[in-house]
């Protein structure tokens, strides 16, 4: 769709990059914006009273406004800049759930979560003696909604799109049903694999918290977003204490700034935030619907081609309508690492392993899978090269 916008492909002519679920490539406009900051107005924000500091501050707040509009938050103050999705989830666990939950109470997640949205909740359950329940999925990778679990749970942490199965969970419907049977449930949605690839509207979803990472959506590493409903964020204790997040500090006590600054202690990743603002512009210019359609077409094509490979097992939905651009697979009698290594030797970049989702792999009954994932810069030729590569691997391993 837009390969020419990404310098990495000019600098690596035969690169077949099929690992966008791990991190996306960066377009020139994003790289330029970061360099522009460092070259022309590098200064710390919210402190300096001189033009370059004022410009840097304005750019950070401009990025906040863009992100807020991008996911349709009610107000930009609901957008907290953090390091990544993982940090955002930990903030919710530590600053919202930990202080408000009592021993013996129940929290819920799903077995298809990335460790980022599993381990923090599991550890909270251990520390606070909570019951820790999870939603399971069927042979197609679709979640079962369990009334009994949701009715009792104080919180539900759920991914929008599985980073292994590719399943697009019907989040809006799940949230609506959950609220019908448990009006007090607090719901966190992990949007790390959805926000870069489809239109997300947090008000329409009616989630309480929504998290994602900039590096998977064309921005730099080190910048992520915690969205939270204003009424919840305003009640939360700070996560990190220090500079930038206070209102007043006396020797024996402090008061804290309003949201979002209360959760942005210390110097921010200013270049990262600026890159995120430009990445949002870039994605919006392409159009989220066009991006989704392009990746859906590629996913359908890839599934069709892969289904023809003898000895292949595909995991997750087989219908591209129900799936993000993520395809996990195994080939009989060949270890996933061998497949990824041989493809890697040919500059075909896929992932092999548990993809930070060990409970999901345990559930599938395998220790590892291969994973192909698409970005807007992929085309059907990439799939053709991949499929030829897999045939070569099969020949080498006589499988
Ligand atoms: C679904 C999902 N959630 C969370 C994360 C964690 O993202 P990060 O490492 O940027 O915090 C990932 C990363 O792969 C992911 O795929």
Short description:
The protein is of the alpha/beta class and 399 residues long.
What this model shows, in words?
The radius of gyration is 22 Å and the shape is globular. A hairpin with a 4-residue loop joins strand 9 and strand 10 (254-256). It has a seven-stranded mixed β-sheet, sandwiched between helices. It has a four-stranded antiparallel β-sheet with strand order 11-12-15-14, with helices on one face. The chain folds into two domains: 3-26 and 288-396, Aspartate Aminotransferase, domain 1 (Alpha-Beta Complex), CATH 3.90.1150; 29-285, Type I PLP-dependent aspartate aminotransferase-like (Major domain) (Aspartate Aminotransferase, domain 2, 3-Layer(aba) Sandwich). The two termini are 34 Å apart. Helix 11 runs parallel beside helix 14. The protein has 14 helices and 15 strands. With 399 residues, the chain is α/β, with parallel strands linked by helices. The mean pLDDT is 97. Pyridoxal-5'-phosphate binds next to helix 4.
Describe the protein's topology.
Blueprint: H1 7-11, E1 16-17, H2 28-40, H3 51-70, E2 79-82, H4 85-100, E3 106-110, H5 119-128, E4 131-135, H6 147-152, E5 153-159, H7 171-181, E6 186-190, H8 202-205, E7 209-213, E8 224-228, H9 230-233, E9 246-249, E10 254-256, H10 270-286, H11 288-307, E11 312-315, E12 326-331, H12 336-345, E13 348-349, E14 351-353, H13 358-364, E15 369-373, H14 380-396
Parallel strand pairs: 1-13, 3-4, 3-5, 5-6, 6-7
Antiparallel strand pairs: 2-8, 7-8, 9-10, 11-12, 12-15, 14-15
């Amino acid at each position: 769709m837009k390969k020419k916008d990404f310098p990495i492909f000019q600098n690596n002519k035969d690169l077949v990059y099929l690992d966008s679920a791990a991190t996306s490539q960066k377009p020139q406009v994003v790289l330029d914006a970061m360099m522009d900051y460092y070259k022309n107005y590098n200064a710390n924000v919210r402190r300096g009273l001189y033009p370059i500091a004022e410009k840097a501050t304005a750019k950070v707040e401009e990025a906040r406004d863009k992100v807020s509009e991008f996911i349709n938050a009610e107000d930009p103050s609901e957008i907290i800049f953090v390091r990544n999705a993982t940090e955002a989830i930990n903030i919710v666990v530590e600053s919202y759930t930990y202080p408000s939950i009592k021993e013996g109470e129940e929290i819920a997640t799903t077995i298809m979560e990335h460790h980022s949205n599993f381990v923090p909740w599991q550890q909270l359950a251990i520390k606070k003696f909570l019951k820790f329940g999870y939603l399971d999925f069927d042979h197609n990778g679709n979640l079962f909604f369990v009334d009994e679990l949701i009715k009792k749970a104080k919180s539900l942490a759920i991914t929008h799109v599985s980073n292994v199965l590719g399943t697009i969970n019907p989040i809006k419907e799940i949230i609506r049903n959950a609220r019908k049977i448990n009006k007090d449930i607090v719901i966190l949605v992990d949007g790390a694999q959805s926000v870069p690839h489809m239109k997300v509207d947090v008000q329409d979803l009616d989630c309480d918290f929504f998290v994602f990472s900039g590096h998977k959506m064309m921005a730099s590493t080190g910048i992520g977003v915690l969205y939270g409903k204003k009424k919840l964020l305003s009640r939360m204790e700070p996560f990190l204490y220090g500079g930038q997040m206070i209102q007043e500090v006396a020797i024996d006590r402090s008061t804290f700034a309003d949201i979002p600054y209360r959760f942005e202690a210390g110097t921010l990743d200013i270049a990262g935030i600026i890159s995120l603002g430009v990445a949002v512009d870039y994605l919006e210019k392409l159009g989220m619907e066009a991006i989704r359609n392009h990746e859906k077409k590629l996913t359908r094509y890839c599934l069709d081609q892969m289904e023809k490979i003898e000895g292949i097992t595909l995991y997750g939905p087989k219908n591209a309508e129900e799936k993000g651009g993520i395809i996990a697979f195994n080939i009989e009698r060949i270890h996933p690492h061998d497949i990824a290594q041989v493809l890697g030797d040919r500059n075909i970049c896929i992932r092999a392993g548990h993809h930070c989702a060990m409970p999901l792999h345990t559930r599938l009954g395998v220790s590892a899978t291969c994973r192909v994932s698409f970005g807007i810069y992929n085309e059907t030729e990439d799939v053709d090269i991949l499929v030829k590569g897999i045939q070569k691997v099969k020949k080498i391993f006589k499988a």
